């Protein structure tokens, strides 16, 4: 009985073109627009890469040459091409390097030549300025106190710190990725309208189908559970398709824990369905009003998770952290965020636990409401 009703409910969901569009096609289109709009920006402006620079000097050795070699091999900050002046100018003109370090053969004075101003050029300038300060300090110490050069070298080595390509974890994180996580969360919460449909088919005073079910010989809850299970399954498939599309078709780096992401999508889909079901069984409002409530809750929840405004979840965390603990979209997106950015599963487990608690509360409240309903005639 259960599996037959479950199968029929699945077929019914597949034939619902409006649900297919909003829950399957719309997130894919929106994700594509996000990728087209922000994908290049993330690669060019957010992610850090080694800075290509030309080193024009008659002698490849020397103090500054050794510094560049150390930064290239140990810190992986720059990528040095040792060429003559003419070749260095050609590389800079064609944009193959970000700047040219030129060493005067007689004075060993180092100059930096750049074609534009930017973050990479500022880093190259800071390297040169720090080298010049250290050189001046060693020269002064050598003249005034030659015995203290070794101690000064050790002290300056401790103070010299350079940026290294990479991060404290193996993952990358930025505000643009929050948009993709919030998009997946919105896709899960779109199941609220499907949950509302299940509720309307369960309340005998709401639709003729529900009235016929009420007088049928089968248990009302025996017909309800397959419907809920089928809607959760379909919504999970929609969300899983969105994750696969973003990961494999658009090459968006959502993280390496694909299995845990699918589990998050399943939990988020269940949360979206039970939100709609709870709204459907609560109160005597018309279907159109309840549908508007479902859509409104989904949009507001997605807004506070950062879908419409980047960094909104962080602002909420600063001024109203409790809201992030109960906001469905934030819990879903934060679960995905935790998988990608943290080295342990504790933050992820906390978000999943909060989602499970919300599902339990909504399901318990909905069943209490429907069990108290009595009809004078059906």
**Class by alpha and beta content:** mainly alpha
Calculate the mean pLDDT score and round it. Answer: 84
Computed Rg: 30 Å
Count of domains? 2
Roughly what fraction of the amino acids lie in strands?
5-15%
Brief sketch in words of this structure:
The chain is mainly alpha-helical and 378 residues long. The protein has 16 helices and four strands. Helix content is 69%, strand content 5%.
Which keywords apply here?
mainly alpha, D-Maltodextrin-Binding Protein, domain 2, 2 domains, 16 helices, 4 strands, 5% strand
Describe this entry's structure for a reader.
α5 (119-144) runs antiparallel to α6 (149-159). 69% of the residues lie in helices and 5% in strands. The protein has a four-stranded mixed beta sheet with strand order 2-1-3-4. A hairpin with a 6-residue loop joins β3 (100-103) and β4 (110-113). The protein folds into two domains: 2-43 and 172-371, no CATH class; 49-159, Periplasmic binding protein-like II (D-Maltodextrin-Binding Protein, domain 2), CATH 3.40.190.10. It has helices at residues 2-14, 17-46, 63-75, 85-93, 119-144, 149-159, 175-189, 192-200, 208-214, 220-249, 258-281, 287-305, 312-319, 321-326, 328-341, 346-371; strands at residues 51-56, 78-83, 100-103, 110-113.
């Amino acid at each position: 009985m259960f599996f037959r009703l479950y199968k029929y409910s699945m077929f019914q969901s597949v034939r619902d073109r409006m649900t297919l569009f909003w829950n399957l096609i719309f997130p894919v289109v929106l994700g594509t627009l996000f990728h087209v709009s922000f994908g290049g920006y993330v690669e060019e402006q957010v992610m850090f890469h080694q800075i290509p620079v030309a080193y024009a000097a008659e002698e490849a050795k020397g103090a500054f040459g050794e510094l560049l070699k150390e930064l290239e091999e140990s810190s992986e900050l720059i990528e040095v091409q040792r060429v003559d002046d003419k070749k260095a100018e050609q590389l800079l003109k064609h944009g193959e390097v970000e700047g040219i370090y030129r060493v005067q053969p007689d004075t060993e004075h180092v100059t930096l030549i750049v074609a534009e101003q930017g973050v990479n050029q500022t880093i190259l300038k800071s390297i040169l300025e720090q080298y010049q300060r250290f050189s001046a300090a060693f020269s002064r110490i050598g003249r005034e106190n030659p015995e203290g050069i070794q101690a000064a070298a050790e002290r300056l080595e401790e103070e010299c710190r350079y940026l290294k390509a990479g991060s404290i974890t193996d993952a990358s994180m930025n505000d643009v990725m929050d948009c993709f996580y919030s998009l997946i969360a919105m896709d899960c919460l779109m199941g609220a309208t499907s949950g509302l449909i299940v509720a309307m088919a369960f309340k005998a005073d709401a639709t003729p189908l529900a009235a016929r079910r009420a007088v049928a010989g089968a248990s009302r809850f025996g017909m309800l559970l397959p419907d809920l299970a089928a809607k959760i399954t379909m919504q999970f498939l929609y969300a899983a398709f969105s994750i696969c599309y973003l990961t494999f078709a658009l090459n968006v780096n959502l993280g390496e824990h694909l299995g845990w992401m699918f589990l998050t999508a399943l939990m988020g889909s269940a949360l979206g369905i039970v939100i709609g079901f709870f709204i459907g069984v609560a109160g005597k409002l018309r279907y159109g009003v309840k549908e508007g409530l479902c859509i409104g809750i989904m949009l507001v929840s997605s807004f506070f998770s950062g879908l419409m405004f980047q960094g909104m979840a962080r602002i909420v965390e600063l001024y109203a952290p409790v809201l992030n603990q109960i906001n469905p979209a934030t819990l879903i997106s934060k679960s995905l965020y935790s998988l990608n950015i943290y080295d342990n599963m504790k933050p992820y487990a906390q978000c999943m636990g909060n989602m499970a608690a919300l599902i339990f509360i909504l399901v318990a409240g909905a069943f209490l409401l429907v069990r108290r309903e009595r009809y004078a005639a059906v």
